[in-house]
Amino acid sequence: MMGSVSDKSDGEYSVIGDKGEISFIDYEDDRSVIDFNPSEEGPIVISVPFPFVNGKPQSVTVGERTVDSITIKNTTGEPVDLWTKIYASNPVDTFTLSLLKPPLENSDSKTGKDFLEFFVLEDRMVQPGQTLTLWVSCKPQELGLHTTVVQFDVGDRLERVIFLLAEDKISRSLASKKPYSRGGRKKQFPVDTYVSTARPARGKNQPYYKNRLPRYDIPKDIREMIESKQIPNGIEDGLTRENYALYFRTLLIMEELQLEEDMRAYDMENVTMRRKGQFLALVVPGLAERRPSLVHGDFIFAKLACEDETSPYQGFIHRVEADEVHVKFAPEFHMRSKTMTLVEAILQLYKTRKDTRILVCAPSNSAADHILEKILGENSVQVHETEIFRLNAPSRPYEDVKPDYTRFCFFDEYIFKCPPLGALIRYRVVISTYMSACLLYAEGLDCGHFTHIFLDEAGQASEPESMVPIACHCQRDTVVVLTGDPMQLGPVIHSREAESYGLGNSYLERLYEFEPYYTGNENYVTRLVRNYRSHPQILFLPSKLFYEEELIACKDDLSSFVTLLDFVPNKEFPVVFFGIQGCDEREGSNPSWFNRFEVSKVVDVINRLIENGNLDEEDIGVITPYRQQVLKLKNALENFDMPDIKVGSVEQFQGQERKVIIVSTVRSTIKHNDFDRKHCLGFLSNPRRFNVAITRAISLLVVIGNPHIVSKDPYWHKLLWYCSDNNSYQGCVLPERLEEFDENPAQESFAEYEEEVFQPTTQNEWEQNNWEQNESFQPELPKPVKDVDEWSDGWR
Description:
cytoplasm; six-stranded parallel sheet; Immunoglobulin-like; Rossmann fold; Thrombin, subunit H; 4 domains
């Protein structure tokens, strides 16, 4: 970085602000701070200290002095008066100048006394042809990026910007082993013809379904249209009463095809399978995290890498263990190689109304198991074991269910089944996932059998998922209760096209677009504003940004362990922001980002929590948006013998809580335009992910990230300055406070950060389009039911 005063003001060319401060310099975005040629600057040639290595700042060790020289050569025929100044170090006073090379740390005391360091070297004369050598030193005391500007006044003003990355043993151990390069496309082989094999046995007593669903193969013309990036007919017209089934069927086809495409990303080449009894065992990276998600009965295609002309073999998965699947091929191939509120409502109905029959659906097996656990653990109402049933899909592994709960399930030879109709009708409470609810219909259970249907976490389910229990079991007098938070994460949709046309909207969210739901009519909607989970200071910001300041913090036992933590500056304010200007990296062919400096800080915080806060590993959770950061964190924690600390994405923490939540934001350099803000910063630019991330903590929330990056988003900007205003920010220099973000972003720019979504017609347009031909038909609205509170997840 250089400049000349000539006819312009001193600061006009400089990266230094009026107060002698450096704003955040993103060297990945603005390469001009490091890409210049000293020989092209003029007759005074100044070398570049601490030059970049492979495009990155040099790495130094925290607590150790690092030194480099700067040479100033006068190529003119006249003496030059030189003034040199260290300007705007970040962190403050971490860089110094000297005329002599600094002595080693273990030098004798006399040498140390003779050595002098300066921030300013005044009035040095450089003779014609002379080369003057100065020394610049840095002794970092904290992790992350250290920067300074060395300013040279030789008549013109020249500058050298210095970047150093301060590391410790943990961050160094996580360094990329090889540079990132985009992985090539894996070789694909056709599977139009293949050698098939038998499906896994379902047990001796194969269930007979009275209402067996037919196969719904994807029509060839629809497949070809979607694969050629065309939108099928009728989708762009929007959802109407006449096209309801066709509309969602087409969206589900789009989602299915996208899942097929996504699954190809997990193809593997040149892998080895080892024999394990009658099966072949295959290690699948990411399987333990359900990436990919494989279950009993799924199949794969395989062929020998050395034989291109042979047909592939189909192999069925018989068992899933951690990151390994047990597969069986044809014989010849083997020879060759918000829950507590929901629970309270259910128990009240069970106790006070003996004629009730309740179906409870959750979006996942773990969520359904959690409901079962809470119902059984409630002492105020004892549910008879013969009246509660946990329905599992046959594909669910038997070992996946806790032994204490298998007595509430039905299975044969360790394969889960739906019990006979005669047994089903005796249960008063049936718990299932959304999709498995269709098994009850397949067994012949009458539509309308259940008096109440509870759809837990309905905001996380797509509308077709919600329709499975409703379409199979709901009649006009059935009470349907949807619980969830439309301000938190919605369904996970893989097809961007299907998501943009409405598959990404939950049924709960779409209901909120119609009266009487969006008006908050108390006959239809109960808002839970009392929060029994989090500390009031943790709740303050989400209440203001997302819930119209209506949340009431009702947590009684405010944890005292926070007062024992030395890194919490304000003991009355349990939200801490650690600012680190680290370095986000990728390695190998993996496109996922990681930030080893933040990993090191996370480990440091966890060690101090366990040592000083008397916390167990199960009390701590770490949220981070990138899979590679998750893996780096898990590896680091395992090395410190802390394997029981949960590390995962925001989605993996929705519906959960921990005494302490640590958020690692990862990104530390990015171009700050709209595209990158929406698509590269990931969850940093998604208000719902932000809301979920900061509301998982019970007693302490710790955020670790680059404030200059996260503050580009209005929600994170509010959180950053919320911490700063309460004396709870530590780390690198803060960015400039943006006045336009001081207003409530939820009121002004929420839609700006959302994906484009399907906008349904208004209620009047719906009625005009669908009812004007039969004005005499006026359907009677069912009488609303208001005898229970809304959803769980810490709210009442």
